[in-house]
Amino acid sequence: MLLIPCPWCGDRDETEFHYGGQAHVAYPQSPDALSDAQWAEYLFVRDNPKGEFAERWCHNAGCRRWFNLVRDTATHQIVVQR
Amino acid sequence: MSAVLPEHPEFLWRNPDPRRSYEVVIVGGGGHGLATAYYLARNHGITNVAVLERGWLAGGNMARNTTIIRSNYLWDESAAIYEHALKQWEALPEELDYDFLFSQRGVLNLAHTPQDVREGVRRVNANQLNGVDAEWLNPDQVKEFCPIVDISPGVRYPVLGATLQPRAGIAKHDHVAWAFARTADEHGIDLIQDCEVTGFLRDGDKILGVQTTRGPIMADRIGLAAAGHTSVLAGLAGLRLPLQSHPLQALVSELLEPVHPCVVMSNHVHVYVSQAHKGELVMGAGVDPYNSYAQRGSVHVIERQMAAALELFPIFARAHVIRTWGGIVDVTPDASPIIGATPLANLFVNCGWGTGGFKATPASGWVYAHTLATGRAHPLNEPFALERFTTGALIDEHGAAAVAH
Ligand SMILES: Cc1cc2nc3c(=O)[nH]c(=O)nc-3n(C[C@H](O)[C@H](O)[C@H](O)COP(=O)(O)OP(=O)(O)OC[C@H]3O[C@@H](n4cnc5c(N)ncnc54)[C@H](O)[C@@H]3O)c2cc1C
Ligand SMILES: [Zn+2]
């Protein structure tokens, strides 16, 4: 079980959190202007690195706020909180 | 007592050094890579082939899965490819002259809510229209088929019925890999272990070969069959694929007297259970939610899965967990695989089988061999092309496939 540092509540068990996948994926500025391939990329394709990964978590069973972490997907080590 | 396991053959495969070039190079020596090699030889007469494996053959998901084999998927495209696999499973023990304990003991997918019942009945109807054996069982019939399931109405998630595929079952996964490997080797195909692909040799958008820890290897066509590590490999070629890698865990109990006659899966409480030939109960859960390559998951996932198993099978209360483990599975947005060409010439992918690719092993190998031999998709893998994420023609087996294993 991961021990996840919520920026507002401190270290809590993973079971209190909901995973949100890759962080910093912005909604396209002008969706109408995207080609099908660009739209597919936005909808379906995310980074999947073996190593450091910026990801989103929501502290569902606590403060219920979203935040970002950088975690190493090869070791599960949480590298930075941001 | 438990079944007597067949003796291992005296000889399985050579351990050749890689040659400088091949007609086809397959990256990944799991079930899919080995089956692809076998069918390249069997169906296409192509034997100038190498399978490159960075560890040992079948050290990935192939020998970590819970070995459930079935073909009762909802959508036509899925039913077609998984049923092709099931037909091959029925022929393979004789064809490969290898007893890998394929046991068609039947798979139940339990329904616990009125919506589960509607979906189950719909799937039975769809399966029957596709020529896949399927029946709907009421709770008493479930009890008759699997006497240890608790069908009492008082439990938190009562059993309201189940789908049954009688031809579905289990096999011994490591033996399956060895059976394919031995026959591929007999055909002269090089199975090269301890050989990690670390890059691609290319000329613009054309892939010419692979860079490996045992030197460069040229090939006319290169097929990735690297399961959970496909994104990492594709990344070396600058390709982004709609895949996310997650841990998937399973566990076994100690060896017990035979108590469990079939395979029981429950989507709703999320557990699936069978009893292996030696006697251990084999149980699997759902994926851990986070991305990972660590081949381990979180213990609360196991705890939940065992709670579900205990409610369904009170008789397991005194069994012990002997071993838990995890594999890394490559999950696509529609829970269906991606098999076919990539934007890079000569580079092909077979990935995204996620939590359920063991059952597909023979069909995956069959259609991938066709694709690598001819450069074109087989009719069975045409719908599973990478382009479906752009055209929108998804094959959405999330939920539709009962549980995805
Ligand atoms: C716990 C668990 C339970 C499962 N239960 C079931 C089930 O009951 N039924 C079912 O149908 N499916 C199940 N699955 C899914 C099934 O195991 C997979 O879909 C299937 O095994 C994937 O294909 P494979 O056998 O070729 O993969 P793998 O055996 O993982 O083969 C991929 C190979 O590629 C190699 N590789 C990776 N990178 C490189 C590189 N750079 N160079 C060289 N080689 C490389 C790896 O070392 C590995 O050996 C389960 C999976 C897990 C983890
Ligand atoms: Zn919080």
Automatic annotation (TrEMBL), chain A:
Per UniProt, what is one GO molecular function of this protein?
Answer: sarcosine oxidase activity
Mind telling me which residue stretches traverse the membrane in this protein? none
User: InterPro entries given for it?
Assistant: SoxD, SoxD_sf
Which biological processes are named by the entry's GO terms? tetrahydrofolate metabolic process
Q: What is this protein called?
A: Sarcosine oxidase subunit delta
Lineage of origin: Bacteria, Bacillati, Actinomycetota, Actinomycetes, Pseudonocardiales
UniProtKB/TrEMBL annotation, chain B:
Spell out the reaction equation it catalyses: sarcosine + (6S)-5,6,7,8-tetrahydrofolate + O2 = (6R)-5,10-methylene-5,6,7,8-tetrahydrofolate + glycine + H2O2; sarcosine + O2 + H2O = formaldehyde + glycine + H2O2
* Keywords for the protein's UniProt record, in alphabetical order: Cytoplasm, FAD, Flavoprotein, FMN, Nucleotide-binding, Oxidoreductase
Gene Ontology annotations for the cellular component aspect, listed alphabetically: cytoplasm
The cofactors required by this protein are: FMN; FAD
From what superkingdom does this record's organism come?
Answer: Bacteria
Compartments annotated for it: namely: Cytoplasm
Looking up SUPFAM superfamilies in the UniProt record yields: FAD-linked reductases, C-terminal domain (SSF54373), FAD/NAD(P)-binding domain (SSF51905)
Q: Known Gene3D superfamilies for this protein? A: D-Amino Acid Oxidase, subunit A, domain 2, FAD/NAD(P)-binding domain
What range(s) does the Rhodanese domain occupy? 23-68
Enzyme Commission code(s) on record? 1.5.3.24
Q: Which GO terms describe its molecular function?
A: nucleotide binding; sarcosine oxidase activity
Please provide the Gene Ontology terms (biological process) for this protein: tetrahydrofolate metabolic process
Q: Which family does it belong to?
A: Belongs to the SoxB family.
Q: What is this protein called?
A: Sarcosine oxidase subunit beta
Q: Which species is this UniProt entry from?
A: Kutzneria albida DSM 43870
Organism classification: Bacteria, Bacillati, Actinomycetota, Actinomycetes, Pseudonocardiales
